[in-house]
Design a protein that fits this description.
The chain folds into 2 domains: 267 residues, no CATH class; 85 residues, no CATH class. The protein has 16 helices and 8 strands. The strands form 2 sheets. A 5-stranded antiparallel beta sheet has the order 4-5-6-8-7. It has a 3-stranded mixed beta sheet with strand order 1-3-2. The longest helix is centred in the middle third of the chain and has 22 residues.
């Protein structure tokens, strides 16, 4: 799941269902299910998909029928059978938390995040991201898929419509791992980190977005009594019904001590990923290609109509004023929280350096725009960020013959 590092033993998927109801509504445009789902009446009771093409792998005799049905759904929707049937563990919350406690929180990596987001004013000075991840982070995880032993672990203790939906999500990741070689794009810090705007993060958005689509379609295919039970569980867990509005993240956030931006970025692959996948690819073949060979930056997912050759990302020279602790690329998504969505859409490349100075977190960012008009829009967009702290610098400078926006602050 998003912003945390992925331990070596744990794979791509960490499902943060809580964020989907805490942050923004899911954006789903609707993908047509295979017609057979509508013809069978109850796909759980009538397995209509066993066919000569071998689209469904036989379920082991000792596996719960509900797990078998969930696996069948994923295989049919994704278009191929599992190579091997994934092992599934459904365990209690205490045991589930213990399974993650030893290797989930990477203090050095969270320090990296803390410096960048504190310097930008997106989290408060008194926020302790290590403590946040030890408490809210682990508690929000509902399931994960381990690449090492190809095991799915679900926070139980029992199977019900809510945990089964999470299982379907994780089964989609098992499918990706078996067919699309998930390990080819690294998901470890700093490559996987949000702020690096990496190919790893782009792939995460695609895989989690697709897994959410599959899980949503599983729920849509259930009879009314199952959907009603699912809604009751959501009401009990989160105190409200699932939202059905349209996602509005990212947006320009105000400086505060809250964790809104952190949680928005955590939930971004799950909340906005489904809509992004549907916009960027059509059909299993295109989706598989998108997962196998994702774009280099999130910009290419947000604007799939942009051609790489017509609009290549500019290599921006990193600021050199200081010997920084950290260097990376923020990307359009992260900068939208500083510049606003419209201004950040003119992004054409960036480079930042960040460091800690006494009790302050500092950052300098150079941002290239696609045109002089869009550079001016970025400057205008950054004014609100500067006004919230007059000590922040917003200006345009020349770097290696390129005029770029320069943001600089020590918070």
């Amino acid at each position: 799941m998003p912003s945390e590092p992925i331990p070596e033993s744990v794979g791509v998927s960490k499902r943060f269902k809580a964020f989907m109801f805490m942050v923004v509504a899911m954006l789903l445009l609707g993908v047509v299910l295979p017609a057979a789902y509508f013809l069978t009446g109850s796909w759980r009771r009538q397995r209509a998909y066993d066919n000569a093409a071998g689209n469904v792998l036989d379920c082991p005799a000792d596996v719960d029928e509900q797990i078998c049905d969930a696996a069948e759904f994923v295989q049919v929707l994704r278009g191929r059978s599992f190579r091997t049937f994934p092992e599934v563990r459904v365990i209690g919350s205490d045991e589930f938390d213990e399974s993650l406690a030893d290797d989930w929180v990477d203090e050095a990596w969270l320090g990296y995040n803390d410096t960048v987001y504190t310097a930008l004013g997106l989290i408060g000075d008194d926020v302790d991201l290590v403590e946040v991840e030890r408490t809210q982070g682990i508690a929000s995880i509902l399931g994960y898929y381990s690449l090492g032993d190809q095991t799915i672990t679900i926070r139980g203790p029992e199977l019900n419509p809510f945990t089964l939906e999470t299982l379907v999500h994780e089964l989609s990741h098992a499918y990706d791992d078996q067919w699309l070689t998930s390990s080819t794009v690294p998901f470890t810090p700093p490559t996987w980190a949000f702020e690096t705007d990496s190919q790893g993060f782009v792939r995460l958005v695609v895989e989690e977005g697709m897994a959410e689509l599959v899980a949503k379609k599983w729920l849509d295919a259930q009879p009314d009594d199952v959907k009603e039970e699912y809604d009751r569980i959501i009401e009990q867990r989160y105190g409200s019904e699932p939202s059905t509005g349209v996602a509005v993240a990212p947006f320009a956030a105000s400086d505060s001590d809250s964790l809104d931006v952190w949680f928005l970025l955590q939930g971004y692959p799950y909340v906005s990923g489904p809509g992004i996948v549907e916009q960027a690819a059509e059909g299993n073949e295109e989706i598989d290609q998108l997962i196998t060979d994702p774009p280099d930056t999130i910009e290419r997912l947000l604007h799939p109509d942009v051609d790489d050759q017509d609009d290549p990302v500019v290599e921006v020279e990193a600021p050199t004023e200081v010997e920084a602790e950290y260097e990376g690329q923020l990307g359009e998504l992260q900068l939208s929280f500083v510049l606003g969505v419209d201004a950040a859409a003119g992004w054409d490349g960036d480079r930042f350096v960040a460091w800690n100075e006494s009790d302050r977190s500092c950052i300098t960012v150079h941002v290239a725009a696609e045109s002089s008009t869009e550079l001016a829009q970025m400057v205008d967009g950054a004014q609100g960020w500067q006004e919230r702290d007059p000590g922040r610098t917003v200006e345009t400078v020349q770097r290696d013959g390129l005029e770029v926006l320069r943001l600089a602050t020590c918070d």
